[in-house]
């Protein structure tokens, strides 16, 4: 079992890294000074704009992400030099969490200066020398290698300091997967440089903009192809007893629905605590993703009540071990999102949120239920509920499953990105976890108490009997 996050040690590491970056930048300015050129300023402005646009509209194909930010920074490095590349990288340094912004800025400064030293050993910036030869190509390759190698080194040390992750684990899970996109970024920067020498600065910038535009267009086509699935037919009608219960519950309000969840929690020991933790994580993700205050409150309420449909599932199904359920039992369990929607859709001003509850078990690859929605057909709010639910199941434990440590839960959650969960929402949640302490990652403390309860800490690992959700 790995240790909990060492937030204090990680914070000291980031501050030391920042001091090193400032010292390196000051040393570079002392040795090489600052030169100004209007053409360089114009090229840097275009590339910086590309960085800003790429941050706002990230481009990805399944598990492959096209790093237009890296292409812009590397192009600025080989065309203009390290100081201009740092200027181009500024739009990619801003995050809501101050500590993450400081870490990103320090890392980029060190990456760019290291890449500048490697590149400078073979060639000079293209706008100064105007020579595209074997030495220039070697400089671009060497600079790109130094750029990414330092990024991997800094990230590996951070994960080691904060979570105790081994370098081998980090290499396998965080470093090797993005290598193809890193190579593509270096080759694209090299192509922009060649176009600038062969056809002039304007042609090089046009090639860069056209490449980014073409990739973005292909990304849109890829998304549209994954959205052309139709909805499944609704499942068969419930039994008369459940239909009668539905009519009673449709006339209730949210407070009564919350009491249902709380009563289920008293039966199984998990539902209420899981619901409270989900609501905290979902609300924080919604804020980080830029949703408005009213929307955040709706997401928080939906996360709290998303398992209210479990009230319609028979006890013999709810309390049976997962491996003992037959196909009929699993199907009855899978009906709970539909029942949750029907219960909550009768609440005034909660009709839309009831849809998120219906779809909180949908998966981006179309393997979820009840409607087998894919990708962007799933509302963002429902994707937020899915990520919060998946993490809570891991960190607090579930039916026949021990609770995991924060690092293990993060690792398993990251492994679900794209195939099961939305990659961007998972990244946002991991960023939120990075900015908080160990208690937050473990869903422990007053903030995680179910409404009306106080002083709850995280449940002990290994408790059984949770109202299970079939994945």
TrEMBL record:
Q: Which UniProt keywords apply?
A: Coiled coil, Membrane, Transmembrane, Transmembrane helix
Coiled coil ranges: 221-255
Record field: transmembrane: 12-31, 38-57, 69-90, 102-122, 134-154, 202-222
Domain HD-GYP, residue spans: 249-445
**Database matches in CDD domains:** HDc
DNA damage among keywords: no
Q: Which Pfam families match?
A: HD_5 (PF13487)
Membrane keyword on record: yes
Please give the Gene3D superfamilies that the UniProt record associates with this protein. Answer: Hypothetical protein af1432
Query: What protein name is recorded for this chain?
Result: HD domain-containing protein
> Species name for this entry?
Rubrobacter taiwanensis
């Amino acid at each position: 079992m790995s240790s909990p996050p060492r937030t204090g040690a990680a914070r000291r590491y980031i501050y030391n890294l920042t001091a090193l970056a400032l010292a390196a930048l000051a040393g570079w300015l002392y040795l090489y000074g600052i030169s100004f050129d209007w053409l360089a300023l114009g090229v840097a402005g275009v590339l910086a704009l590309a960085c800003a646009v790429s941050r706002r509209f990230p481009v990805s194909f399944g598990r492959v992400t096209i790093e237009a930010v890296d292409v812009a920074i590397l192009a600025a490095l080989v065309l203009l030099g390290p100081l201009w590349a740092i200027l181009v990288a500024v739009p990619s340094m801003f995050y809501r969490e101050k500590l993450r912004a400081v870490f990103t800025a320090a890392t980029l400064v060190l990456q760019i200066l290291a890449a500048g030293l490697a590149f400078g050993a073979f060639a000079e910036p293209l706008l100064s020398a105007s020579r595209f030869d074997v030495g220039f190509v070697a400089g671009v390759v060497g600079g790109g290698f130094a750029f990414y190698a330092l990024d991997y080194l800094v990230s590996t040390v951070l994960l080691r300091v904060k979570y105790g992750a081994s370098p081998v684990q980090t290499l396998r899970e965080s470093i090797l997967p993005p290598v193809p996109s890193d190579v593509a970024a270096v080759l694209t920067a090299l192509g922009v440089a060649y176009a600038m020498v062969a056809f002039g600065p304007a042609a090089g910038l046009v090639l860069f903009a056209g490449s980014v535009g073409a990739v973005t267009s292909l990304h849109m086509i890829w998304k549209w192809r994954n959205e052309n699935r139709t909805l499944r037919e609704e499942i068969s009608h419930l039994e008369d007893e459940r239909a009668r219960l539905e009519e009673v519950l449709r006339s209730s309000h949210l407070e009564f629905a919350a009491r249902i969840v709380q009563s289920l929690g008293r039966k199984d020991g998990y539902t209420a605590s899981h619901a409270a933790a989900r609501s905290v994580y979902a609300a924080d993700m919604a804020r980080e993703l830029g949703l408005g205050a009213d929307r955040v409150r709706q997401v928080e309420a939906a996360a709290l009540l998303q398992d209210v449909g479990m009230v319609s599932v028979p006890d013999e199904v709810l309390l049976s071990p997962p491996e003992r359920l037959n196909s009929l039992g699993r199907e009855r369990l899978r009906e709970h999102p539909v029942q949750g929607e029907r219960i909550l859709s009768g609440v005034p001003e909660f009709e839309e949120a009831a849809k998120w509850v219906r779809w909180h078990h949908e998966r981006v690859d179309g393997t979820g239920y009840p409607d087998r929605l894919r990708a962007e057909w799933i509302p963002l709010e429902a994707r937020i509920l899915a990520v919060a639910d998946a993490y809570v199941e891991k960190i607090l434990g579930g039916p026949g499953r021990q609770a995991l440590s924060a690092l293990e839960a993060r690792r398993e959650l990251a492994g679900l990105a794209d195939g099961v969960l939305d990659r961007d929402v998972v990244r946002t949640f991991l960023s939120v976890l990075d900015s908080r302490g160990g208690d937050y990652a473990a869903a422990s403390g007053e903030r995680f108490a179910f409404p009306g309860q106080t002083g709850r800490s995280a449940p002990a690992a290994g408790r059984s009997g949770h109202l299970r959700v079939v994945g």
